[in-house]
Amino acid sequence: MFARSVVRAAQPLKRNLLSRTYATEPAKSGSSNTLLYTLGAAGVAGAGYWYFASSPSGQVAAKAKEAASGPPKKAFTGGDQGFISLLLKDVEIVNHNTKKFIFHLPEDDQVSGMAVASALLTRYQYEGQKPVVRPYTPTSDEGKFILPRNTKGFIELVVKKYPNGPMSTHLHEMIPGQRLDFKGPLPKYPWTANKHDHIALIAGGTGITPMYQLCRAIFKNPDDKTKVTLVFGNVSEEDILLKREFADLENTYPNRFRAFYVLNSPPKEWVGAKGFITKDLLKTVLPEPKSENIKVFVCGPPGLYKAISGNKVSPTDQGELSGILQELGYSKDQVYKF
């Protein structure tokens, strides 16, 4: 079984690329290969707290409590609901250019109302200027028993600051006590348990948050047996957010989850994938395009879309499939671009 830990700074690529299938014994280490494909700057990444397996007694208690009080009230209901102003309660530094923002929902006992997969619109407007609107995928969970912090009543955003990013710059300048407008949820790819036998997640920079949202929904549901392969490209090791959470997944579900990291500027001791995501890497680690029930999800900066899948035309038009995935024989119906 793939029992390697993502917590270690780097892992031999050859060990990771031995088979498309999920083996039952650990693979042997080997030398790494240099991989080429530019992702550009690493962007927003999801972070937050993740509790993958509630105890049976906790699940029973949760169901009993919900049955007695009814389902929790949702802050965001979509449709004709307008923007909602939320109070920024806390800001945490994640790394050199990324912060976590914790916003308070209008009521303490509310949940966000987010579905998997979906996002929220953020908005701010300076006097005399056009409003700035950007979508983000919250990294907090709906769950009422998430450790170490109960996220009921709050949402979390993890945002990387871009030099020319008006919304990310605005967020990074915010301090607790200020407010930001939110609207949603914006539905993306509707997920149900066991919708696909195996999914592949190809992410770069900003693309990790919807991938995290999908993984969390799959692995916190004991009825969902979907296998997941993640390929995540970043500029440096410091940019790999959620590393601990994905390591927990690999250690807990070694037969169902694998993560492969690619660094554009790796440290000297890095023995994993170097450079950029390539056709050879994806051909080796992704499920075969001839498989009957698979899905490949792509999300990241424009350069990643162009090389991997082609850009989508609009939020409602996926556009034609091109790039590496098309060359490898995947069909348009097998790929979803966030």
- Report the average pLDDT across residues: 82
CATH class of the largest domain: Alpha Beta
Pattern of helices and strands: HEHEEEEEHEEHEHEEHEHHE
Tell me the count of domains. 2
The major sheet is characterized as: 7 strands, parallel
- The total strand number stands at 13
Distance between the termini: 30 Å
What is the 3D form? globular
The percentage helix is 10-25%
Estimate what percentage of residues fall within beta strands: 15-25%
User: Spans of 5+ residues with little confidence (pLDDT < 50)?
Assistant: 1-56, 143-150
CATH architecture of the largest domain: 3-Layer(aba) Sandwich
Number of helices: 8
CATH level-4 homologous superfamily of the largest domain = Nucleotide-binding domain of ferredoxin-NADP reductase (FNR) module
**Assembly status:** single chain
Looking at CATH, which topology of the largest domain would you report? Rossmann fold
Output the radius of gyration: 20 Å
Helix/strand structural class: alpha/beta
Q: Please give the order of strands in the largest beta sheet.
A: 1-11-10-9-8-12-13
Protein name: Ferredoxin reductase-like protein
Organism: Hypoxylon rubiginosum
